[in-house]
């Protein structure tokens, strides 16, 4: 039986907000009704880490966060307040850029003979002879020879043993190369001797740009200094989890959030092992489910971290009627007329030919090895096999499949994804023989025997996820900006809103299959906060007003592009961002647009920036935000959206607090929060302000709270009252509870989301509120038998009630409870 996790609150720990800082807010979270503090990773990470995912030592609590003593103080604060604790863990990778990673240091020092060589996913026998039994270390800022000639690489003997220095990088020398080592001064002054020494190492120093094409270790996506671990190795599992599972065994941890489950070779095998170590823990996984995709029912977990819920609930506030006019506007304004599926394929192929090219080459080598063993396929050329792999991965409809070799397990869902991808890829590339795609499908579905075939099937699954993430989530979502609130982790810009019936269907299935899954609307990974999305969604209801505004703004602001051709796509994204996050200071707007333009990879990017374009974009943003006339126009436009945006936010918040699953609140979003993508959403949180607002909320009437809504009190009220009800009626909202849709009647019935939990609580929330702005006369809700009390206003209702006047007249949302429970 898992711990009673009723709700969670996610905090991002770093040197500026460590264990003691988290301990100071525990009492506030307890007062708010949170049952579990949910922390970002806090094992020893690289110095200055702002997120904890760059772990260097899995056996140690982070010193920067407060060490063992600070950790103990946090646990004591949780215990005093009767709260539990959930930790985010990182089984997929470790940081390798610091000498404090003893495992990687040993691999660099001893090469394939290192005890830890099998801990990391390293290809010691790549096709390039220069890298056999050697690691590529792509850290140089220029070509190796130039760096060496400039004297930027040296030997340093100041410590216990001689090491190689390259600016901030330190690397060991192999024991064999130390024999007969000349004096350090002599060595550092002799380029040829230094080169000879470096050639004798178990690693090859290289220009950083070589990594995408030649890297021979698997990374976390395209980050060179995050090396993937072979978690399928029992020794690795034991070492990585020893401290964490000790905390679980001691009762210090009630649950675990598993980061990047899709990066593991065998997610189900990993989770089965994890569950055997912590049978009573609450376990959720970071997993993005594409529309229609189901979480494998055989996974021994409570569910996901809530991206699927985020996509579903967000769709309630997007008006499907706005799709055609906003599509026309976007195409006219930006000139982008490509089909979304074509754009998705294009961006995935871009990822595979640039930052993830080495991963595809590794698959190509395996494909060639398998093909060579079969007379029907041995004459296919590598160029054909590479193209077959790329097209199939580009056509893959989900992040990955979960096919297992031992035991051999293939679900109907996964078989369907493989067949769909290979079929679509074959249709797109008639110049490639269909038999090659069929052969690849057979390999991926384990119909071809042999070690190389099985290895290809497993590695293919570990490659499709990064390609989807880099091509779609990190690139397309900054490229196709028709309606920015749809471009979200767990979302799909092609799905322009959902019906209330479809939302109810998804929640009913969630209550049946994953009743304890985490549900969230903001996370550390979201592209923009829940409140920004809630306001941007309103644009789908006013396409004509929006079109007039952006055309007016373009005419006014065109001068700020200077002599550089205008980037209408980034301009269109900027206008949506300024609407969603208004008022947005120049510093934050500029940083966001720099990231958006670099991630879009259209006219600039992180690795090959265009300085002229970058300067032009900065100048455009600066000019726009300094234009008093534009700011006045923007303010007037946004002014009409602030209140309906807040209503959307309250509706979304109440649904999250009462729907099927365990509600998670991301730090700071208990008040109105207009944060953008990381690192903007890691800005310091004013918890003293939250204490003040909570105190006011408890003292005032709901009318006063709504009157002074600018302080965020209404959102805090919704969270506190909903969480109090969950604690009061755990059975109604828990694993054995029920979720029953409640349909409204009347002219605006499509603007009312209502459902019953466990027969004792009813949620009533509006959606697409601008469409119902003319009033709701005649829109009613038939309540189940009994007398019901609204937890916000205290009003008592029963039978058939008017939604607008009776339920939502005094406050934008309602939470009803039977009077006799």
Describe the model.
By secondary structure, the chain is α/β, with parallel strands linked by helices. It is 44% helix and 13% strand. It has 30 helices and 27 strands. The strands form 7 sheets. The chain has an 8-stranded parallel β-sheet. Strands 19-21-22-27-24-25 form a 6-stranded antiparallel β-sheet. Strands 6-13-12 form a 3-stranded antiparallel β-sheet, with no helix packed on it. Strand 14 (255-258), helix 9 (267-277) and strand 15 form a beta-alpha-beta unit. Helix 17 (451-479) crosses helix 22, helix 21 (568-581) crosses helix 22 and helix 22 runs antiparallel to helix 23 (611-626). The longest helix has 29 residues, at 451-479. The chain is globular, with a radius of gyration of 28 Å. The chain starts with 7 loop residues before the first strand and ends with a strand.
